[in-house]
Write a structure and sequence with these properties.
The complex is a heterodimer of chains A (244) and B (56).
Chain A lengths: L2 H6 L2 H33 L13 H28 L2 H33 L7 H21 L4 H15 L2 H11 L19 H33 L5 H7 L1
Chain B lengths: L1 H6 L4 H44 L1
The chains are: A mainly alpha (244), B mainly alpha (56).
Amino acid sequence: MWTWFYKLASPPYVYGVAAALRLWLFGAAALAMGYGLIAGLAIAPPDYQQGEAFRMIYVHVPGAILSLTVYTVMAAASAVALIWRIKVGHAVAAASAPIGASFALLALVTGSLWGKPMWGTYWAWDPRLTSELILLFLYVGVMSLRSAFEDPLRGDRAAALLAVVGVVNVPIVHFSVVWWNSLHQGATIVRIGAPKMPGSMLWPLLSMWLGFMLFFGAVLCMRLQAEVLNRERQASWVREAIKS
Amino acid sequence: MTNEFWSMGGYARYVWPCYGIAGAVLAWNLWAAGRYLAAAKLRAARALAMASSEAR
């Protein structure tokens, strides 16, 4: 039962799986995002309150959800690396950090662009916005800490510790709109009960969400291959692997 | 219809930059990951070449 878990601890196995998966993931992401983009921009009806401005949801929400998902992946991989001393865990965490940071930045910038016409301001020190900004700082902190040590092993361990401690911010971002008074609207799709949107608006959003997730998977595979190579440079299996 | 689509009900200056930035983030991820992998492969190839020349 645990064979797959042990296999995931093997760098050559992980390198091979990542190389085999990434093109399929890119293809599936392109299909999902293509449908989501066309349906979200041209087919979904305008919102009865926000009009056409609501169409920003199709990049803002998938970007924001992804920024939280990637952090959770990074923290889980870091915990696995710290507890079981599995090097691949550090490689997954290192590969995830820049991707997650870019999507946290995307969520902040697109949210800011959406905020101006709806709230009358690009920025407010609102609980949701502030906790998402802290998430971006955590990503930057994890990346900086990893590269701050001359010994890569110490850098990996320090970054993993910060990633694990920082995961406390993930539920804070998600529930900030429930726990505190916030300008930001409540959860639309990741909530208990049915989503708050009609199907014509929801399906493109779910498709974009799926597309962003698959895109993350594909980019993670590429970065993971690079991280594994950087850590296993002297290993005998690398000679065959870099030929392909 | 076309003008109506591009004007986004008067919100064009918010909606289109939003999609532009999303496209830029996706493109950056693709480009940066590709570059990072290519650099890692090059470093690994150099390390292997050095190791085999030392063995001789």
